[in-house]
From TrEMBL, chains A, B:
GO molecular function, one term: methyltransferase activity
Keywords associated with the record: Methyltransferase, Transferase
Family membership: Belongs to the class IV-like SAM-binding methyltransferase superfamily. RNA methyltransferase TrmH family.
Domain of life: Bacteria
Record flagged with keyword Isomerase: no
Protein name as it appears in the record: RNA methyltransferase
Every MRM3-like substrate binding domain range: 8-79
Domain tRNA/rRNA methyltransferase SpoU type: 107-245
Keyword Methyltransferase: yes
InterPro entries, per the entry: Alpha/beta_knot_MTases, MRM3-like_sub_bind, Ribosomal_eL30-like_sf, rRNA_Methyltransferase, SpoU_MeTrfase, tRNA_m1G_MTases_N
Gene Ontology BP annotations: methylation
Amino acid sequence: MVSKALGKYVQSLHQKKYRQRHGAFLVEGGKSVLELLSSDLETEHLLVTAEFASQNHARLPARLPLSMATEAELTQLGTLATNTTALAVARLPQEKPLLPTLPEAALLLALDEVRDPGNLGTLLRLADWYGLPGVVLSPGCADAYAPKTVAATMGAFARVRVWERDLSEWLPTLPAAVGIFGADLAGDNVHRLTLRPAGVLVMGSESHGLTPGVAAALTRRLHIPRGASGGAESLNVAISAAILLDNFFRNQ
Amino acid sequence: MVSKALGKYVQSLHQKKYRQRHGAFLVEGGKSVLELLSSDLETEHLLVTAEFASQNHARLPARLPLSMATEAELTQLGTLATNTTALAVARLPQEKPLLPTLPEAALLLALDEVRDPGNLGTLLRLADWYGLPGVVLSPGCADAYAPKTVAATMGAFARVRVWERDLSEWLPTLPAAVGIFGADLAGDNVHRLTLRPAGVLVMGSESHGLTPGVAAALTRRLHIPRGASGGAESLNVAISAAILLDNFFRNQ
């Protein structure tokens, strides 16, 4: 049985305003909750079904505030269509310093107004797969800690660092040696280049592309060749990012 | 004003059972409807707002049954959260013959139990981008003509051919020269291979991988290298397919 106060608190975290006010966010579903528990993030509350608790007894930290809940309660308090396992409240991580020299040594992903939380989550998962040091989000992006984003990361939310920066201000502050890459239909064919995973790869929103200030900061425009008889006008932003990242990492 | 009978018919097409019974499916939103009208598919009914009709007058075929509808009616009859433009009923296309020699000359995508309509739609869009001759779906896949799939194709539904086959029966009937490729963590590193776009690329469901009969039919297993410090266990099925397709098409 979940207390009324805790239930109200959990439900408030559906909204960004309350996530920011309380410095906390929701993690829903057993798989994501187990990723949270095995990460560096701090867990504040854990709500679990009796079945999940008994199956994962060894993985639940002893010191943590734990509430038993029914499947109906988890589903009602959360945002998933059904939740039969677990839900956690985690502390929002402190933003680590974003060193301007970082992109000289490694590839950062920067997202310009990527508003769809599903796309954002998939991009964070991709950053995790390639072990990028993190992802820089423009203020117009979806919230990295919205329930839909967290779900779409498939656990990567617990590992990938994110920073929020006004990209049109931040990109020009980077050392001149840092490559700033972006996708552009009129750019260079990635199949003809030998890319190395260093610099910043900027991806824009699917519908609007890069904002003008960000487009102006690019030092290299990249183009993914379409099939000779291809019909689609464009690719999804996460799909494009995946193809570009594979092209950066294939020459290591 | 949409007639009651037409409204009922449109709503029945939310369900696969009625799509099959009537041989028709729904296309929702102005952009998708315009893709439909400029394709080879047959349009049965067109429901449009007055504003959409006046803005796209030249692109609406004169012979077509056309109903004017309010935004509220379109939204209520369809599956989108809001639809302020247009909705069409299109005829399900006739399945063209699937020649066993086709994959000797070109690359086909085959999907094994890909149940999520969003993923299926994204995969069809990808097939369209690369101009693949089509996509072969196992009976357990999401319906290629479900409203969510159609929406996720971003217009590719109007161009990409699909076939339904029991893959574990169909794959072994292909000529011996046809390569049957699948993703496998223990497979060959795609960055070390020179792949050509011919054969069949089989993608399995994200949660369960390839079914045993399909896995047994593969002639080559491919592996997408993860970043050296990467954390994610896996990639989304459409993301994996995109990276693999780029590797097939880069050596043309």
